[in-house]
Amino acid sequence: MQTMTYEWGSGLARKSAADHVAGLVLRILNDRGIHLDSDLRARIERCQDLEMLDAWAVRASTVDQAEDLF
Which of 14, 37, 43, 50 makes the best surface tag, with the fewest CB within 10 Å? Predict the structure, then answer.
């Protein structure tokens, strides 16, 4: 039996994954009581780079202020 590896099949799938991780970053910051102004929130929401979003998700659990995320 042959195993298959899949790359992101569509831009829609990639956008959906990025939107999900961006939401996770926002939730972590919110749950930790870290305030985001509208510009920082928009920066996170607009990001479509999954590697960057993943790094932000990790950092979101330790930063003391939103600006330290970047």
Answer: 37
According to DSSP, residue 16 is labeled H
**Alpha helix (H) residue ranges in the chain:** 11-31, 38-46, 50-60
Taking the C-alpha atoms of residue 47 and residue 57, their distance in angstroms, rounded to an integer, is: 12
pLDDT in tens, 15-65: 899 999 999 999 999 999 999 999 999 999 999 999 999 999 999 999 999
pTM of the model: 0.80
Residue 7 CB: number of other CB atoms within 10 A?
Answer: 6
- Alpha-carbon span 27 to 58, nearest angstrom: 12
Q: What span, in angstroms and rounded, lies between the C-alpha atoms of 37 and 49? A: 21
